[in-house]
C-alpha cells in the first residue's frame, strides 16, 4: 500500500527533521549569543577609553587648579597673566566684552557669497543657514558675533530651569548629545520637522566637541532659539565648558575656521555657555537635565543659583569660599564672638587683613608715594575679597539676580554647594544598584541608583527624568523601572555602525551592513584603539609582567597577563574574554610578553615612522600635551609667545621648588624655539619633550 509506506516514511523522517530543527535553533542561539557578547565587549572598550580620557582631563585641570591655589604672583603683571590664563571667561566686564567683540566695525566684503543675517531673525534666515551649511559654506564672522551677542542677551533673561507646556504645541521633541555631528541634526529636522510654533524642541546639551561641525550646530540652534524663543529650549551640557573644549576639539575647530576673528568668537561663546539654562521642566512632571542627579540635588537651589558665575564647572573657587562664609554669618546676624571660635579663626586666617609694612622715610618722596599706593591697594583688595567681589564682575539685573534679591530671607548657600549642584547634574550617570557614590569612572559627578531617582521624583512631584550624557547602542535606554530615559542623538559615535541616534540612523553606509558586518567593523576599530592604549603603556606593562616573571624567562601565564594589564590600564575590561583578539594562543598556556610587545610596537611604527620608545610616550601624553599647549596659548593663536612661556614656567618652577632665574627661563625658551621666529608652535613643543625623553 503506497499510502501506508508513505506514512511510515513520514513517521521515520519526522524525528530527524525535529532534531535538525533543534540543532539549527541551538546553533543560531549560540551564534546570536556570541554576537551579543562581541558587541558588549566592543562597547565596553570604547566606553572605558572615553571615560579614562575624561578622567585625564579632570586630573590635568585639578593639577593646574592646585598650582593656582598655591602660587603667589610676585607682581601685578604675573597676577594678570595667570588670571587671563586660567579664568579667561571672567576677565571681561560687560562693556569690555562688548568692545572686544565689536561686530559692527567689521565689514562684509562684496566677494562674500554666504548667507546674510539681519536682526530680528526670521524663519527665512534659518532656512538660508541650513542650505548654506549643507553646501559647506561658512557664515561671516560679523554675523557669527552678532548672533552670539543677541543669543547672550536672550539667555540672560531666562531662568535656570526652563518651563515648557504641551498645551501650546502638538509635541515636544527631546534631543540628546550632538557632539558636532551636523548630519544628525539635519536628519532630526528632516524626520521630525523644523522648530515652529506647533513643534517644540529641547536640546539637552553637548552640542560641541568631538565632531567637526560644532560651530555650525551652535549657529543653527541659536538662530532657531531667537526665532522661536518659546518653542526652542537649550540645556547646558558638560561640554559647554571652555576648559573641556580645549581638549576635545571645539577650540581648535573655531580657530581653524576663523583665523582672524576666532579669538573673539571663542570669547563670546564662553560667555554664552555660562548663561545656558541648567534644566527644562515639561508640564511640571518631566525633568530634563544633561547628566543626572545625586542624593543632594536641590531644584530650589538650582532655580536660584547665579549660573553665569560658573564659566567652567571643572573648577570650584575655593579661595573665595571662606570669605563667603564670613559674609553669610554677618548677614545672618552672627557676630564673630558668637561663631564657633575654631571655625571662625580658621575662616578668617585664610583671608587675613593685610598689615601695612613700615613706612619708608618721608625724605624719599618717590618711595613713600609707592608705599602709600601699595598699602591702599592691598586694603581695597582685602575688602573686595571679604565680600566676594571681583574686579572683573559687574552686577547686572538678570533673572537669577532678581530671584536672589527677592529671596533675601531664604537660605544662603556657599559657592562650593552651588558648584556641586551644577557638577552633579552635568556629569552624573545612573547605576542599577541603590545608593549614591562618587563617579570615579568619569572623574566628576556621581552614580545615582533607583532609590535616589524615586526620592527626587517624589519630593518634587515628578513622573519622569530624561537625561543624555551616555552613548547608547539604540540611541536611548530606559532604567530605574522606566523612570529614567537616556537620549543620545549622535549616531555612529564611536565608529560607523556602533550606535543609532535616538530617532534615526544617520549614516547611509550603516544601512547596507548586516548585523555581523556592523559588529565586526566596530569591533575592529575598538581593538585598534585598545592596542594603541596598550602600546602607550609599554614600559609600565613590562614592569607589571616582570613582577610575575621572577626567573626573567620572558614568559608569563595568560591569567597573569590579564591581571597585569588591568593593573596598569585600569579600564575594568574583561581581559580574559578579550585575550584571543589581543594575544596569540599558545600550546602551553604561556605568553612571551616581550615578543607580544614588539608586535604592538611594530604595528604602531607602521603608522608612525618614529622610534618605539618615543612613540610610546607621544601616544600616552599627546592629548595632555596638546591640552597644556592650548592652556598656555591663551590668545589661541596656535603659538606660545615667550612671555606666555615665561610666566607659565614660573608657575611650574614654584610648584616643583626649582630655582630658575629669568635669564635661565629665557635661555630655555630660546632653545625650544628651533626656527628662531620668536614663538613656539605645537611641533616645537612636542620636539622639546622628545629631546628630554631621549636625554633621559
From TrEMBL:
It is an enzyme of class 3 (hydrolase). Residues 536-571, 620-655, 660-695 form the EF-hand domain. The keyword Endoplasmic reticulum does not apply. It comes from Calidris pygmaea. It catalyses: O-phospho-L-threonyl-[protein] + H2O = L-threonyl-[protein] + phosphate; O-phospho-L-seryl-[protein] + H2O = L-seryl-[protein] + phosphate. Its EC number is 3.1.3.16. This is Serine/threonine-protein phosphatase with EF-hands. GO terms for biological process: detection of stimulus involved in sensory perception; negative regulation of MAPK cascade. InterPro entries: Calcineurin-like_PHP, EF-hand-dom_pair, EF_Hand_1_Ca_BS, EF_hand_dom, IQ_motif_EF-hand-BS, Metallo-depent_PP-like, PPP_dom, PPP_phosphatase. Residues 330-359 are annotated as: Disordered. Belongs to the PPP phosphatase family. Its cofactor is Mn(2+). Keywords: Calcium, Hydrolase, Manganese, Metal-binding, Repeat. It comes from the Eukaryota. The keyword Cell membrane does not apply. GO terms for molecular function: calcium ion binding; Hsp90 protein binding; iron ion binding; manganese ion binding; protein serine/threonine phosphatase activity. Pfam families: EF-hand_7, IQ, Metallophos, PPP5. Residues 330-339 have a biased composition (Basic and acidic residues).
Amino acid at each position: 500500500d503506497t499510502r501506508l509506506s508513505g506514512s511510515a516514511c513520514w513517521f521515520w523522517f519526522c524525528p530527524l527533521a525535529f532534531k535538525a530543527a533543534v540543532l539549527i535553533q541551538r546553533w543560531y542561539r549560540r551564534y546570536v549569543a556570541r554576537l551579543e557578547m562581541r558587541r558588549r565587549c566592543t562597547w565596553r572598550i570604547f566606553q572605558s577609553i572615553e571615560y579614562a580620557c575624561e578622567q585625564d582631563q579632570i586630573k590635568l585641570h585639578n593639577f593646574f587648579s592646585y598650582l593656582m591655589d598655591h602660587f603667589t604672583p610676585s607682581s601685578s603683571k604675573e597676577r594678570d597673566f595667570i588670571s587671563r590664563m586660567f579664568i579667561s571667561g571672567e576677565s571681561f566686564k560687560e562693556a569690555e566684552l562688548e568692545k572686544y567683540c565689536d561686530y559692527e566695525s567689521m565689514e562684509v566684503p562684496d566677494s562674500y557669497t554666504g548667507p546674510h543675517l539681519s536682526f530680528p531673525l526670521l524663519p527665512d534666515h534659518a532656512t538660508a543657514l541650513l542650505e548654506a551649511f549643507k553646501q559647506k559654506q561658512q557664515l561671516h564672522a560679523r554675523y557669527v558675533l552678532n548672533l552670539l551677542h543677541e543669543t547672550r542677551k536672550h539667555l540672560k533673561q531666562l531662568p535656570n530651569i526652563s518651563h515648557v507646556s504641551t498645551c501650546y504645541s502638538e509635541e515636544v521633541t527631546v534631543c540628546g548629545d550632538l557632539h558636532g555631528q551636523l548630519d544628525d541634526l539635519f536628519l532630526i529636522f528632516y524626520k521630525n520637522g523644523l522648530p515652529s510654533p506647533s513643534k517644540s524642541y529641547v536640546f539637552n546639551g553637548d552640542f560641541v566637541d568631538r565632531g567637526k561641525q560644532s560651530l555650525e550646530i551652535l549657529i543653527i540652534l541659536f538662530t532657531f532659539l531667537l526665532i522661536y524663543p518659546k518653542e526652542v529650549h537649550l540645556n547646558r551640557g558638560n561640554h559647554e565648558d571652555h576648559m573641556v573644549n580645549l581638549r576635545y576639539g571645539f577650540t581648535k575647530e573655531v580657530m581653524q575656521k576663523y583665523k582672524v576673528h576666532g579669538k573673539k568668537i571663542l570669547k563670546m561663546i564662553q560667555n554664552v555657555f555660562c548663561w545656558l539654562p541648567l534644566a527644562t521642566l515639561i508640564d511640571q512632571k518631566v525633568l530634563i537635565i544633561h547628566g543626572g542627579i545625586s542624593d543632594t540635588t536641590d531644584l530650589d537651589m538650582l532655580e536660584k543659583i547665579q549660573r553665569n558665575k560658573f564659566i567652567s564647572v571643572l573648577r570650584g573657587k575655593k579661595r573665595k569660599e571662606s570669605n563667603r562664609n564670613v559674609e553669610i554669618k554677618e548677614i545672618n546676624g552672627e557676630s564673630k564672638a558668637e561663631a564657633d571660635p575654631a571655625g571662625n579663626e580658621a575662616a578668617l586666617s585664610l583671608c587675613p587683613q593685610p598689615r601695612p609694612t613700615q613706612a619708608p622715610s618721608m625724605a624719599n618722596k618717590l618711595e613713600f608715594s609707592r608705599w602709600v599706593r601699595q598699602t591702599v591697594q592691598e586694603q581695597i583688595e582685602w575688602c573686595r575679597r571679604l565680600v566676594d567681589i571681583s574686579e572683573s564682575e559687574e552686577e547686572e539685573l538678570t533673572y537669577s539676580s532678581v530671584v536672589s534679591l527677592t529671596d533675601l530671607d531664604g537660605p544662603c548657600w556657599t559657592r562650593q554647594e552651588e558648584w556641586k549642584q551644577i557638577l552633579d547634574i552635568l556629569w552624573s550617570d545612573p547605576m542599577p544598584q541603590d545608593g549614591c557614590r562618587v563617579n570615579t569612572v568619569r572623574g566628576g559627578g556621581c552614580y545615582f541608583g533607583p532609590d535616589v531617582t524615586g526620592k527626587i521624583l517624589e519630593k518634587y512631584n515628578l513622573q519622569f527624568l530624561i537625561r543624555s550624557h551616555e552613548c547608547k547602542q539604540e540611541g536611548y535606554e530606559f532604567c530605574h523601572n522606566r523612570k529614567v530615559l537616556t537620549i543620545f542623538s549622535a549616531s555612529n559615535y564611536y565608529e560607523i555602525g556602533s550606535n543609532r541616534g535616538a530617532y534615526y540612523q544617520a549614516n547611509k553606509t550603516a544601512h547596507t551592513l548586516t548585523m555581523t558586518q556592523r559588529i565586526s567593523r566596530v569591533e575592529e576599530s575598538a581593538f585598534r584603539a585598545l592596542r594603541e592604549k596598550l602600546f602607550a603603556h609599554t614600559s609600565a606593562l613590562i614592569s607589571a609582567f616582570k613582577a610575575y616573571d621572577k626567573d626573567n624567562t620572558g614568559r608569563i601565564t595568560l591569567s597573569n597577563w590579564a591581571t597585569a594589564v588591568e593593573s596598569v590600564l585600569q579600564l575594568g575590561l574583561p581581559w580574559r574574554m578579550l585575550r584571543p583578539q589581543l594575544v596569540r594562543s599558545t600550546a602551553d598556556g604561556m605568553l612571551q610578553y616581550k615578543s607580544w610587545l614588539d608586535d604592538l610596537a611594530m604595528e604602531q611604527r607602521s603608522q608612525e615612522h618614529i622610534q618605539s620608545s618615543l612613540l610610546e610616550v607621544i601616544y600616552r601624553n599627546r592629548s595632555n600635551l596638546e591640552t597644556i599647549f592650548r592652556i598656555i596659548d591663551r590668545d589661541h593663536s596656535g603659538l606660545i609667545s615667550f612671555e606666555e612661556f615665561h610666566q607659565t614656567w614660573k608657575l611650574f618652577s614654584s610648584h616643583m621648588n626649582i630655582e630658575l632665574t629669568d635669564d635661565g627661563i629665557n635661555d630655555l625658551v630660546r632653545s625650544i624655539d628651533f626656527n628662531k621666529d620668536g614663538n613656539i608652535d605645537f611641533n616645537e613643543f612636542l620636539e622639546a619633550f622628545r629631546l628630554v625623553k631621549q636625554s633621559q
